[in-house]
Amino acid sequence: MSGITQHKPDKAYEGYTLFSETFAEPNWEVGKEAVVYLIDMNGDPAHTWHLTQHTVQSHCRLLPNGHLLVPTHDRSGVTQCSNVGIFEYDPDSTLVWRVRCRTDHDYQVRDNGNLLIHTLNETMCPPLGPELKRHPYMIEITRDKELVWEWKGEEHLEDLEACLSPEAWQHVLDRATGRFAFDWAHNNTLQIIQPNKNEGDPRFKPGNIFFSYRSNDVIGVIDYDTGDIVWAWGPGIIDGQHKPHMLANGNVLIFDNGTLRGYSRVIELNPLTETIEWEYVADPKEAFFSAAISGAQRLPNGNTLICEGGKTRLFEVTPDGEIVWEFINPYRHENGRPVIYRCLRYSPEYVASLLS
Question: Which CATH number is correct for 3-298+324-355, 2.20.130, 2.120.10, 1.10.3470, 3.40.1090?
Fold first, then answer.
């Protein structure tokens, strides 16, 4: 089955869901296109963008003015390819702004319009072993493309070690010198901390940044002002995770892929006590599994929207784990891959300018 398979209007959060398949190749022949969908609760497209300039990688974002931000493929060769970076389109799919950069997995828009972008660099890093290493690299740019902040993961290994137990740090080193010797961190997250109940703890103050080192099962927080890693957690508990981010209640929502475990779960972690206070798993557990990509979003009514990306399955669950909306992508595109990196649900008020 595909399309809408479940919908309980009295329990679901009514809104519009934005998603796209991943389109892997940065250069394709003229005439081919990527399509981004904003669907209603019935699974019908309320709006679509048809993009012919480049690929779509990871996830798109809808701006309040109805424009769409689109990132391209993260491993593109920037010097050889002019059509990589982040692009902004109006509702008619007309390009209105772009920045050329090596976009990797995640990006955020600040209230002042600045873009925080996770990207990549490759350098030698003797503390992690011999040969070239790929490192997390975050930048902040203005709309005029001025660089105003940057952060390099390889410069903060001591911070990370200080936040972890000796056993957890050894897990990081074993991965970085073993099966993930090149892409030692594989950060897939850049999430700005919003106002929350734990913001009295300076580690979780608004403006700090959550990251997610998938290669070594670590999530953590960067202090935006100092650049230091001030909190980290995960080895031995989570497995290949995506999109940790702080909720208004001060907890952290995480899509725990379970890449080696064989089943996925979504967990809500109290970062002060480091205890899991909520968890969604399927019955049987293996029925819910995406070895890579994916994410979760806490909705205003307390439900959780989940993207099981490897199956192109988007679904909404109540705090009790009841599925109240489920959608499996029927809009397969000849140039796409059968995966959805992440989805986002928007309120009717947020999309009003786009759909009016």
Answer: 2.120.10
Low-confidence stretches of the chain (pLDDT < 70) are 24-32, 53-54, 73-83, 334-336
Q: Considering Cα of 331, then 93, then 65, then 21, what sign does the dihedral take?
A: positive
| Angle subtended at Cα 98 by Cα 23 and Cα 142, rounded to the nearest 5 degrees | 125
Q: Shortest CA distance to 339 belongs to which of 308, 299, 305?
A: 308
As a whole number of angstroms, the distance between CA 129 and CA 238 comes to 25
The structural domains of the chain, with segments of one domain joined by +, span: 3-298+324-355
d(CA 292, CA 208) in angstroms, rounded, equals 25
**What does the angle CA 35 – CA 188 – CA 193 come to, to the nearest 5 degrees?**
100
- Measured CA distances, 145 to 72, 138, 225 (Å): 17, 14, 20
Cis preceding linkage at 284, omega within 30: yes
Read off φ and ψ for residue 297, nearest 5 degrees: -135, 125
**DSSP letters spanning 67-115:** -EEEE--TT--TTT-SS-SEEEE-TTS-EEEEE-----S-EEE-TTS-E
Total residues belonging to the chain: 356
Can you give the pTM of this predicted structure? 0.95
C-alpha 35/C-alpha 50 separation (Å) is: 5
